Amino acid sequence: MIHLNSNIFQVISKDYFKNLFIKIKQNYTFKTSAMKYNFLFNHILFWENNELNEDLLNTILLKPFNEMIKKYPELNNYILTCQLVFYSSSISNLNFKNMSNDEKKTIIISYVSKYNNKWIEPIMNQQSYYKSKKAFSYFISTINIELMKLNDYISSFINYMYIDSDMRHELLINLESSVCPYCNRQYITPYDDNGKLKTTADLDHFYPKSIFTLFSLSLYNFVPACQICNSRFKLAQGYKILYPYDQGFSENAKFNLKINTTSDINSLIGDNSNFELDIELFNNGNYNEEIKNNIKLFHLKELYDIHKDYVRELLYKKYVYANTYKEQLVTLFKELNLDEHEINLFLYGNTLQIEDLGKKPLSKLAYDILND
Ligand SMILES: [Zn+2]
C-alpha cells in the first residue's frame, strides 16, 4: 500500500556487499556440467577473465531490478522465466468450466506472452501449451524443471543462509521503515534487547528464493513487513501484488467514505458512524489487478472497517478546524513559526505529506480522508 523509499539501501550497500562477496567467492565453483543447462546466462555471465564476475554480483545484490536488467539484459530472461512459473497459479486456479476453447486459448496465450523470452521460446515451439489447462500445466512444469537445475547450481553459491540473525536485524534497522508497507497499520520499529537493537519486523523476499534463487540476497528483494502481513503473503504465493519499491496505492487507490441508507448530514462531519469505508480504485490508474490483489490478500477492507472511529475523529476535526477554531489556531501557529506540515501534525497527528506515509500507522487513511 505504501511506496517504500528506494534510496534506503544506500547507507548499508558497501558493507553488505563486502560481507557477502567473501562468502559467495568461497562457495562458488565453476561447474562445467552447468554449461549444458538449457537455461543459462549467456553461458559465462558469472565467470569473467578467470574470475568470479564481481560487477555482476554487485549489480544483483545491490541494484533495483530495472537497473539490473539495463546493465545485464540477459538477467531479464531469468526474471521473466521465474515470473512465468511463479504467477502460473493464477491460470491453474481459474475456473475454465463455462468457457469456449477459444476463450481458454486466448487467456493462456495472453498470460504466456507477458513472460515470453528467449529461454522459453524453444519449449513454446515444441508444445501446444494453449490447448488445455493440462497442456499449460505440463508446459509450466517442463520450464520449471529446467529452471530448478539452474537454481540448484545458483544456490550453491548465492544462499540466504549467509545472512545470520544479527545481520538480518541490522539490515532491518537500517531500512528505517517504521510501519508495515502492506497494511500501514502495524509498527515495525526496533527495540533494545540487552544493549542490542532488534526489530519487530519480518524480513521477507518479495520474490521467493525457491523460484527466484538468484535474488536470495538482493537488497531490493527484501521487504520489511509486519508478521501478520508477512504470513498472509507467504500463504498466498503466486498472487501478483504491488512491488513496494516501485508502487504504492498513491493516487491509484484511495480510502473513501461511502454513504449508505442510514447516513445523514452528520455522518459527513464525524457525528455518527453511519457510513461505509471503502477503497476506491481509479480507472485511469494502472496496476488495478495488483491493487485488487493487495486488498484481497491483506484483507484491507475488513481490517480498516474497525478504523471507522478514527475516520469519525478526522472528519470531526476537519469540520471544526475549518470554522471558528482555525482562525485562532493560525494566529497561534504564526507565533510558533510552524509550517503547513507541522500544523497538520499538531491538528491531526499526521504531516499529510506523501513521503511521510510510511512513518505512522493509518497515515494513508488520514491522507485520503482529509484531502478529499
Ligand atoms: Zn502489515
Automatic annotation (TrEMBL):
It comes from Paenibacillus hunanensis. This is HNH nuclease domain-containing protein. It comes from the Bacteria.
